[in-house]
Design a protein that fits this description.
The complex is a heterodimer of chains A (115) and B (110).
Chain A lengths: L3 E2 L4 E5 L4 E7 L6 E7 L6 E7 L4 E3 L3 E6 L4 E6 L8 E10 L5 E5 L3 E6 L1
Parallel strand pairs in A: 2-11
Antiparallel strand pairs in A: 1-3, 3-8, 4-5, 4-9, 6-7, 7-8, 9-10, 9-11
Chain B lengths: L4 E3 L2 E4 L5 E6 L6 E7 L6 E7 L2 E5 L6 E5 L5 E5 L8 E8 L4 E3 L3 E5 L1
Parallel strand pairs in B: 2-11
Antiparallel strand pairs in B: 1-3, 3-8, 4-5, 4-9, 5-6, 7-8, 9-10, 9-11
The chains are: A mainly beta (115), B mainly beta (110).
């Protein structure tokens, strides 16, 4: 089935620390995953994506790791800043036989960065 | 370049009324998807449109409908509003697999 969830609903870190946000997915056939950041009152903002033929992908201060064996995804944020405070969602991109692509989201992890 | 735009920003309706939400995709994007986000949860897929054709539909009642215009903009219509339809309605546009979201329309049904 399609089920993308997050292990922790909230995460609190000190400014300058590294943050790790985890995500579990259940559809082993999924081949594309995206992390979104959503600030209060705004739409989700694309952060980074990864395809299933990769284990790791790095962006600016962010790294996504994919472990297909245990169907686990994580987002690492280096040197976390107050502006990183937001709700983070992982999303699984699924495609049906008709060619429709949809994102299946988990509930999200609220990251709070303390100064 | 302008991102995905949505209108209106906020909307208050009463039960039983009908509502139309609008979305303009990023220039060059031909696919538009609609999502409903209830407070405290992740977005839920409603529709995907590509080249004015419905490509996919989520688990939503027939009260929800949508269409895409020749310029790739889209409208989401919801009839016979229920209190449970109160949510943030998000539009996302895509060229390939990456979907980029607009700011959403906050719908409150009283």
């Amino acid at each position: 089935g399609e089920n993308v969830g997050l292990h922790l609903p909230t995460l609190s870190v000190q400014e300058g620390d590294n943050s790790i946000i985890n995500c579990a997915y259940s559809n082993s056939a999924s081949d594309y995953f995206i992390w979104y950041k959503q600030e209060s009152g705004k739409g989700p903002q694309f952060i980074i994506d990864i395809r299933s033929n990769m284990d790791k992908r790095q962006g600016q201060r962010v790294t996504v790791l994919l472990n297909k064996t245990v169907k686990h995804l994580s987002l690492q944020i280096a040197a976390t800043q107050p502006g990183d405070s937001a709700v983070y969602f992982c999303a699984e991109n699924t495609q049906d036989q008709g060619g429709s692509e949809k994102l299946v989201f988990g509930k999200g992890t609220k990251l709070t960065v303390n100064p | 370049d302008a991102g995905v735009t949505q209108s209106p920003t906020h909307l208050i309706k009463t039960r039983g009324q009908q509502v139309t939400l609008r979305c303009s995709p990023i220039s060059g994007h031909k696919s538009v998807s609609w999502y409903q986000q209830v407070l405290g949860q992740g977005p839920q897929f409603i529709f995907q449109y590509y080249e004015k054709e419905e490509r996919g539909r989520g688990n939503f009642p027939d009260r929800f409908s949508a269409r895409q215009f020749p310029n790739y903009s889209s409208e989401l219509n919801v009839n016979a509003l229920l209190l449970g339809d109160s949510a943030l309605y998000l539009c996302a546009s895509s060229l390939w697999a990456e979907q980029y979201f607009g700011p959403g329309t906050r719908l409150t049904v009283t």
